Amino acid sequence: MSVPGRRTDRMGHEIRVILAELLVRHVKDPRIGFATVTRVEMTADLHHARVFVSVLGSPEEQQSTIEGLTSAAGFLRHEIGHQLDLRRAPELDFILDHGSEAVEKIEKLLQQIHKNEDPKG
Length: 121
Hints:
globular; 4 helices; 51% helix; three-stranded mixed sheet
């Protein structure tokens, strides 16, 4: 008996790896900027995948990248199904992941705090 969620986690990880490879080597849409697949969340029935993507650039570039990925979803889905030998590949929903931006803001704030501390007390 498997642990609930383990299959969805494993499938999400495999899809993330495949998508990362496809984005680097096969997707040539000029709208897609520097994008990194940060995580993939699968529904319990494995029919839908929420693909979280971190994109460097302006909000316009980020939106353009999401549009490009959405446009390429059919090709990406086909490749995922082929590489994982799935009868039915999951629908892909691309979501902009702002996590890296939040980390960057926190790091800048911590640096400012550190600079403002007086080492002499």
